[in-house]
Structures are given as C-alpha cells and as structure tokens.
Design a protein that fits this description.
The complex is a heterodimer of chains A (425) and B (130).
Chain A (H helix, E strand, L loop, with lengths): L4 E8 L3 H12 L5 E4 L15 E3 L8 E2 H13 L4 E3 L3 E5 L4 E6 L3 E12 L3 E3 L15 E3 H11 L6 E5 L3 H12 L3 E6 L9 H8 L6 E2 L2 E7 L6 E6 L12 E4 L2 E4 L3 E3 L2 H5 L24 E3 L10 H21 L8 E5 L3 E5 L2 E2 L10 E6 L7 E7 L2 E8 L8 E4 L2 H10 L3 E6 L1
Parallel strand pairs in A: 1-2, 1-8, 2-5, 8-19, 10-17, 11-12, 11-17, 12-13, 20-27
Antiparallel strand pairs in A: 3-4, 6-7, 7-8, 9-18, 14-15, 15-16, 20-22, 21-23, 23-26, 24-25, 24-27
Chain B lengths: L1 E3 L5 E6 L8 E6 L5 E5 L5 H11 L2 E2 L2 E7 L5 E5 L4 E2 L3 H8 L3 E3 L7 E3 L9 E3 L7
Parallel strand pairs in B: 6-9
Antiparallel strand pairs in B: 1-2, 2-3, 3-4, 5-8, 6-7, 7-11, 10-11
The chains are: A alpha/beta (425), B alpha+beta (130).
Chain lengths: 425, 130
C-alpha cells in the first residue's frame, strides 16, 4: 500500500505527553501535524483521574485530572492540528512510516519527517507478579477499577482489598470508600510506603483504611468470584514468614503493583531501550536512538507528576518540529548520563550540546533507596564534579528533577563527550 | 490524627500535607488546643498546618455525579475549596444521589454553597450531550 499522506510530525498517543508534543510541534512551525489516539477521547489516563493534585508545576494550581487534560485539549483543538481518534497504530518503521487503522478510514499508511512516541505505560498484572490462588473473577488492576468507577459508573465490588501502596492504589482505596465500598486493608510487600506520604494521609488515614507493610497476598480463594484472600508477612528478603497467614474476606482484589512503559511500537521501529527505565534511550531533545523518532512521558520512564510528562512532551514536540524542518539529525556526540549510587533511573541517557536548541536542560533521577536524611547529589565526569545539589531526602516514590545551572551547562559543553554519573550520597 | 489524652497535655502526631516531604510533626497541646511544643517540622508551614488540623481540619473532596443524556454516565466533580474533614463521608454519600443533565462543562457549579458550609461542588470535566 502506498503512502497516502505526508506529515511533518506524527504524534502517537493523545495523553498529556502527546497533546503537549503536538501543540509544541505546531507552535514551533510544523504546519502538518497529526496526533493519533487509540481511545475515543483525548487525555490518556487523565479523564479517569478525577482526584486533584495536577498542575502544581505548570499552572501553579491544583486541578483534578480531567480539568488538567481539558486545558491542553482546548489549546490543541484551537490549533490546525489533525487528530485521529479511535485509531490504532499497528506498525512504525525506522523510516518513519506509520501504519494504522480505524473503522471509518480503514487501513492508513502515512509518513512523517519526525515521530513522537507518546504511548504511555501499562499496569503490571497478576501474571507479572506471579500471584498464587484461584482464577476467580474480581481481580482488577487499579487503573481498570478506576475506569469502571470513574468513567463507566460501575463498582467492581463491595469489600475490596488493595495490593500495593503506590499512589494509584491508595487513591483507589479512597475512591472506593467514597462510593460506599469497604476497604479492609491496603497491603504493601515492601517495608515502606511506595506512594507519596500525603496520599497516605488523605487517602488512607482520613478514611480509616488500614495499611499493612511487609505484607502480601499469599493465596486467593473463591471459585467463580473472589471470596477471600490470605495475607502473609514477608521478611527482609521479601520471603513469606510461616505462621503469619491471615484470611481476609473480600469479593475483590485490586492490584497497584507498578507500571511499565509501553514500547511495542518503539521495538518495531528499532529504537534502543534502556533495561533500567524500560523505555527508549533518549537524549536531551527527547530523541531516541533512531534519528527523527522522539519519545515523551511515561513511554520513556514512569513519571510521578503529570506536569513533567507535559514538559517532556513539549521538549519532544519542539525538537521533532526542528528535526522535520532541518531534515538532519544530531551527531552521535554527547555526554552519556549514567545512574550511580542510589540512583535507579537517570533520564535523559544522553546530554547533547551540539546546538543551542534549548536554553534549559533538565535531568530526572529516580532514587532506588529510601534515605530519610539530607542527601547530596553529585554529577561527576570522571573525577571532576561538574555539578551538585542537595535534597532534604531521597525516596523511590519521588523523582528528583534538576535543572542544570548555566555554569554546569557551560562546563559540560566544553567536555562534550564522555560519561556523567549521577550519584546520591 | 492520633490523640492520646492526659489531664494536662495531649500528644499528637501529624503528617504535614503542605508539601511532598510530609514531615512527621509531634506536638503537645493544652486543654485549649494551644500548641505547647512542636517538633519534626522542617519549616513554618508545618506549625500552621498542625494548628489548622487541630482546630478545623479540611480536605478537598473529589468525586463524581450521575449525568442524564450525556456521552458518559458520570461527570467528575470536586470542591475547589476544602470541606471540614468530618463531613467527607457524609458529603460523598450525598453525591451518589445527585444527577445532572448534559452538557456538563468544566467549572459548572453543580451545587452552590453546599449544605450551607460555604463550599461549592464544581464540575472538573466535560460531558457533551449524547
């Protein structure tokens, strides 16, 4: 099938990263921008995130998810950007050809000068954490339960146990309580809360929902429908401690056990992936290893604030538009950013200084240790400390966003190549 | 949150909601709810927060209401100004009986001065007519 349409920039995914990317690509001068979204609405996960807590960075306000999404959608729809909803992208080539289909246009074959990957992430499921027990109905991921309750208007059950103390798990425990369900327990296999503390207060303590740390699901009972679960305490190696089993009656189990960047299309396009972030290796323009293919938001790594997802989308959209116009790609030079001590993920993996496209440069670090004390973050190039900053603590639940200072940028620009290691001590 | 009563002073611990850090703040208060001593807060917002928590704890309530004739059966709503904490479950239960007609627009006031507490229930999302 022939290419039927040529675009400057095609954005795949209409969540917060994709909307920001499409807006920014258009504003940077791309006249032909297309956004392709699989769902029948824009906004990605935001329309079902009806709780507040969005917009503190970008709007200096506290909005519910749908309202945050609406602000971007309104701007996007005011621009001359093509939007295809209900459309599934099937394939993407390194030559930036997009194969997609929907029920109106049928099979589509488009080509773009630049692509932005903004497919977001997926939830880890029961299979991925090898949960034992029967295959009864009543086991949902937190996001599915959230969609049922907040968009479709169904309650997944009446007595609901939540596994996982991430933000989505705690927010759903509150949400289900607000809608009249009973939540007898939130379980967390780790010895500490994995979500934000404020959610522990606002979602669990305020609604008298008990949290059990170092505890997981040992068994699930029920033939057709969940009837109970067995919980068990775990030791410091996360192994079950015999004799600590307890049966909790419930009709529903909700899993909030982590998110994984969605990169099926990235793989098809031959984009190099980082085994730590589970997303594409990106440079400071959010360009992947394939020239002209950019990535933004949760497809690159799991963010904890949507505001930074939008910011990464803006960088990707702007860079994609510039690439579309210039038709060239950056040289392979640049400084590789590596995660050092106490750092799990460092984004972007490559800092580029071969042009002055962006006046500012951010790095994002996800700590992999819980340090409840003042910490120092050092950026070292060989033995040279190029930059450092202090934080009051380091927690896996909260990523550190650091805007490189002028003199640090100037020094890195001089160094041009090599490795920069980010370490927390 | 946790209060241990004694004749003279009451001890309590609060996790501050002013920022993501979430300081664990330990205070002792007298019978008039005056703070006798406070520790654990890394900034002065912590003291203000605990004072508010002691006298009039408030929270934002995000929930949803039913929509007639909309493309979706629900509209997201919230209280942009926080409501007294002790009313949360009561108000949440009340929203389950609220039904509005599509279209719903961001910012639409669903209930003005809800229960006379000076707080509006406001739509936070769009629901077009089916």
């Amino acid at each position: 099938m022939e290419v039927t349409k040529e675009y400057d920039v095609i954005v795949i995914g209409g969540g917060p990263a994709g909307m920001a990317a499409a807006i920014q690509a258009f504003k940077t001068g791309s006249e032909k921008v297309l956004l392709v979204e699989r769902n029948n609405t824009l906004g990605g996960i935001l329309p079902q995130c009806i709780h507040n807590g969005f917009g503190a960075v970008n709007f200096d306000r506290d909005y519910p998810g749908p309202q945050y999404s609406y602000l971007y959608e309104k701007e996007l729809r005011s621009l001359n950007v093509d939007i295809l909803l209900d459309t599934m992208v099937l394939d993407l080539t390194p030559e930036r050809e997009v194969y997609a289909m929907n029920s109106v246009d049928g099979y589509l074959h488009y080509r773009a000068k630049a692509i932005v990957l903004a497919m977001g992430c997926r939830e880890r499921t029961r299979a991925q954490i090898r949960l034992p027990g029967t295959r009864a109905a009543g086991i949902f991921t937190a996001g599915t339960a959230q969609r049922l309750v907040n968009i479709e208007g169904f309650m997944p059950g009446n007595r609901i146990v939540v596994l996982g103390s991430g933000d989505i798990g705690m927010i759903m425990a509150r949400r289900l309580t607000i809608e009249g369900a009973e939540v007898p327990a939130v379980l967390e296999i780790l010895p500490f809360l994995t979500g934000l503390r404020r959610n522990y207060v606002q979602c669990l303590l305020d609604y008298n929902i008990p949290l059990h740390l170092s505890t997981t699901v040992n068994n699930i009972y029920g033939e057709n429908r969940v009837e109970a679960i067995e919980t068990v305490k775990v030791d410091d190696k996360l192994q079950p401690v015999e004799g600590t089993e307890q049966v909790v009656e419930c009709d529903t189990l909700i899993l909030s056990v982590g998110l994984l960047p969605e990169n099926e299309l990235s793989r098809k396009a031959g984009v190099e992936l980082d085994s730590r972030s589970n997303g594409p290796v990106v440079d400071s323009h959010m360009m992947t290893s394939v020239p002209g293919i950019f990535a933004a938001g949760n497809v690159t790594a799991i963010y904890d604030l949507v505001d930074y997802v939008s910011k990464s989308g803006e960088i990707a959209g702007r860079s994609a538009a510039q690439f579309a116009r210039a038709g060239t790609h950056d040289s392979q030079s640049g400084i590789t950013l590596k995660p050092g001590t106490n750092v799990g993920v460092a984004i972007p993996q490559k800092l580029r200084f071969d042009d002055d496209r962006s006046g500012e440069m951010f790095i994002m670090l996800r700590p992999n240790a819980l340090l409840e004390r003042a910490v120092k973050v050092e950026l070292k190039h060989g033995d040279e400390v190029v930059g450092s900053f202090r934080e009051q603590y380091a927690r896996p639940a909260e990523m550190m966003i650091y805007r490189l200072k002028e003199r640090e940028l100037a020094r890195l620009r001089e160094l041009k190549t090599g490795e920069l290691t980010a370490a927390i001590s | 949150m946790n209060s241990i009563g004694t004749a003279q002073a009451r001890k309590r611990m609060d996790i501050c909601l002013s920022c993501p850090r979430g300081c664990e703040i330990h205070t002792r208060t007298d019978e008039n709810n005056e703070i006798l001593d406070i520790e654990g807060n890394k900034c002065k917002l912590g003291a203000t927060y605990v004072k508010q928590e002691i006298t009039d704890p408030r929270r934002v309530l995000p929930t949803s209401v039913r929509v007639r004739n909309g493309v979706r059966p629900l509209a997201p709503v919230w209280t942009p100004t926080p409501v007294p904490k002790h009313l949360l479950l009561d108000l949440a239960a009340a929203t389950r009986d609220i039904e509005v007609d599509a279209p719903v627009h961001v910012g639409d006031v669903i209930i003005e001065n809800w229960r006379g507490i000076g707080v509006d229930l406001v739509a936070s999302g769009e629901v077009p007519v089916r």
